[in-house]
């Protein structure tokens, strides 16, 4: 069930600890996922391929507005969380309201932190923390032609 994949931090932390005790590799990524598209799907599948459990931290509506402006998000955090959770490659979704996911990264201590290749490794939030305990930071391949901003812009030109 989709709703079973959407977790609060207390429950997710227990799940992650138990998974790691069983030798499972936990992968973490985050984003707004405001307009889910093929680029996101390929990105999330690539992230999942790096481990056994994929945790996706989703920016809350308020944090998306801070990052992208008052016209965003296009869809509510509940709708976005449900869409991301519906993907087979995603094991868990957690919504966060901070400007960065650093608190979640510190609480969950994933084995792998993944961001898109549009990020420079040195700018990835949580990189130093992940590296401090031997975790891995990966920049996933960017899928050319798929960007939420570009898609939104193309839609606006259709008016």
Query: Outline, from the CA principal axes?
Result: globular
Work out the helix count: 8
Helix-strand topology string: HHEHEHHEHEHEH
Could you give the order of strands across the largest sheet?
3-2-1-4-5
Structural class: alpha/beta
- The residue ranges in which pLDDT falls below 50 over 5 or more consecutive positions are none
- Count of structural domains: 1
Rg over CA atoms, rounded to whole Å, is 15 Å
Regarding CATH, which class?
Alpha Beta
CATH superfamily: HUPs
Structural description of this entry:
It contains eight helices and five strands. Strand 1, helix 3 and strand 2 form a beta-alpha-beta unit. Helices cover 43% and strands 18% of the residues. The longest helix is centred in the first third of the chain and has 13 residues. A five-stranded parallel beta sheet has the order 3-2-1-4-5. It is globular. It is an alpha/beta fold. The model has no long low-confidence stretch (mean pLDDT 93). The protein has one domain: Rossmann fold, CATH 3.40.50.620.
Structure at a glance:
With 159 residues, the protein is α/β, with parallel strands linked by helices.
């Amino acid at each position: 069930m989709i709703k079973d994949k959407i977790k609060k931090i207390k429950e997710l932390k227990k799940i992650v600890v138990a998974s790691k005790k069983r030798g499972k590799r936990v992968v973490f990524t985050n984003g707004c996922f405001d307009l889910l598209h093929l680029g996101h799907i390929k990105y999330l599948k690539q992230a999942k391929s790096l481990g056994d459990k994929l945790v996706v931290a989703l920016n809350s509506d308020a944090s998306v507005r801070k990052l992208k402006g008052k016209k965003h998000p296009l869809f509510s955090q509940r709708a976005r969380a449900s869409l991301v959770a519906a993907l087979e490659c995603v094991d868990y979704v957690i919504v966060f309201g901070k400007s960065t996911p650093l608190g979640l990264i510190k609480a969950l201590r994933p084995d792998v932190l993944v961001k898109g290749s549009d990020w420079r490794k040195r700018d990835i939030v949580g990189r130093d923390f992940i590296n401090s305990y031997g975790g891995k930071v990966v920049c996933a391949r960017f899928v050319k032609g798929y960007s939420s901003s570009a898609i939104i812009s193309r839609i606006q030109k259709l008016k």
